[in-house]
Amino acid sequence: MARTLIIIRLELDHKKASFGDVAAAVSGAGGDITSIDVISSAKGSSIRDITVDTGDQDETAFVKALRKLHGVRLINVSDRTFLMHLGGKIAIEPTMPIRNRDDLSQVYTPGVAKICTAIHESRNKAFSLTIKRNTVAVITDGTAVLGLGDIGPYAAAPVMEGKAMLFKQLAGVDAFPLCLDTSDTEEIIRTVKAVSPIFGGINLEDISSPRCFEIEQRLAEELDIPVFHDDQHGTAVVVIAGLINALKVVGKSMSEVRVVVSGVGAAGVSICKMLLAAGVTKLVPVDKEGAIVRGGTYAYPMWQWLAEQPQVESQPGSLHEVLPGADVFIGVSAGNLLTGEHLRTMNEQPIVFALANPNPEVDPEVGMAHAAVFATGRSDYPNQINNVLVFPGVFRGALDCRARVVNEAMKLAAAQAIASAVTDEERNEQYIIPSIFNDQVVPLVRKAVIEAAIATGVSRRIPPDFR
How far apart are CA 416 and CA 196, in angstroms? Predict the structure, then answer.
């Protein structure tokens, strides 16, 4: 059962029970009290909120234990996570107050007509005169929510709200979730295009493969604002960032290592493309059907594209058959595919990124015992590969230079910038990727993305700090 926090409100009769009795009951049920808040206190009683880390226990175990105590009355039990989501996690606020009738006439009719006319005469003025300059749409149909699968747009909304919070807190970007009640590719494309005038960028999220490829490609071609599929490109960028530093730890170079990628869906294909752009010369993409080989014929267009790349090996085989002799394993597939025996077939000083969630491709304890550098997508082990490191800075940079697209050069620059946030003195086998709370990451990524956008001719504005 998932680890969680619950808040228990109770009334304590001081003549019949002490708080020590409550703490002992919680501990006996397998939990830990993490905080205590006194809500009210009278001469003979008090009402308190206790926050309990439930470990792997169900909340009913604590309710039963406390109800057995004489002198303790349970008032309410709340899951802290649910409380944090009540009413949603984001809101819209004006940038200035409307204090009087004159203010009203400026921000609304009749004064606003001048602004509308100016934008009608020059559409680009929408970037400076509306929220377009700093607003991103977070688009999903809820068909591939991480760890949950196809749960639909309503259930996906809390994830998208959380992403909007991260945009704002980490990069100052105003993001708004648009959860679409359709999984039809053409309808999604039409809808996103129809709402695009008010947004400066589009972040696609949790859309199932292979539809996500066409949606992202078509929107990138048909819109003049950056379109970024975070499950593809965000994951790929942070994987490359981690690999850059992992290779430094083991003393190998991108051009000499043999890389096996398990899982050739949205994330896997994008990782493979970025590996090639970063200089990998020996690549083995593997799906559940086996290795994608150079010269092969495949129904999926992106698999076919991989089969046409000279760096992709031509030897077929299953994951277990192609893994021997690999320097790097990157898994974005399914849990528990590999054992320590499999990892021992890799080259010396192997690098293993087991990123399947919630269960990695190899047990983390086994992976850390056999790999020189081991990473997962989990926060409870070192080297968490988390795309939260990517999208805030990428969009901050793309919005600030009004980029038309997010191209491969900008993505690779972002990866190099994230890697650079870990200094030579800090870098070791358990620290190859910076924390998402490292306040240097967003500025570094922003700067790198803007420089790459300017160099590749996709920016429409030079930010003041670059002039």
Answer: 30
Q: What is the mean pLDDT of the chain?
A: 94
pLDDT at 462: 96
How far is it, in rounded angstroms, from Cα 444 to Cα 432?
16
Tens digit of pLDDT for each residue in 52-71? Answer: 998 878 888 898 999 999 99
Question: Pick from 89, 79, 75: which is nearest to 53 by CA?
Answer: 79
6-39 pLDDT, tens per residue?
Answer: 899 999 999 999 999 999 999 999 989 998 988 8
Q: What is the pTM of this model?
A: 0.86
Query: Active-site residues: which are they?
Result: 108, 163
- Residues 177, 158: Cα–Cα separation, whole Å: 9
Alpha helix (H) ranges present in 52-107?
59-67, 80-85, 101-107
Which residue matches tokens 């086996």? 290
Longest pairwise C-alpha distance within the chain: 83
Label residue 406 left, alpha or beta by phi (over 0 means left) and psi (-120 to 50 means alpha): beta
Rounded CA-CA distance 236/251 in Å is 22
Distance CA 20, CA 23 (A): 5
- Cα three-residue angle 411-276-140, rounded to 5 degrees: 45
